[in-house]
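Name: Acyl dehydratase
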Amino acid sequence: MPPKIHLKDVPALIGTEVGVSEWITVDQAMIDKFADATLDHQFIHVDPERAKETPFGTTIAHGFLSLSLLSAMNASGAPQIIEQKMGINYGFEKIRLMSPVKSGSRVRGRFKIDDARFRGGNMLMITYNVTVDIENEPKPALTATWITIVQFDPADRPAL
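Structure predicted for Acyl dehydratase:
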């Protein structure tokens, strides 16, 4: 369970790792469902027999599937802000797909706050440096600079 923190605590956390998510198993069923949803049925993702002939020796998850798991990783790994009314995915500054996620692998996210700025009366923009680890692999699946927005009641804005 991720820690619960107050809005006023966020600026002091800039530059620190604030959480690590639970492990998520990326199995063939998940990969196949993602292929169906995105209409990307390239054999390296969905054909285990043909994928055996590749340097990976098995099917691999789509890079966008690995990236999309950040939402679940955020929920189980990043701190929960007590005053938050709603969270918004604002986007990414940088994404690097560094290592394929083989079918059956487990992945988890590591969250470091790179920046946090109050915007307007009821928003906090948080920039995370996220690394998605693959269990028992030396290189991560991906790294990303992810920007989120925390919306809160203006009455809860701390005086900084």
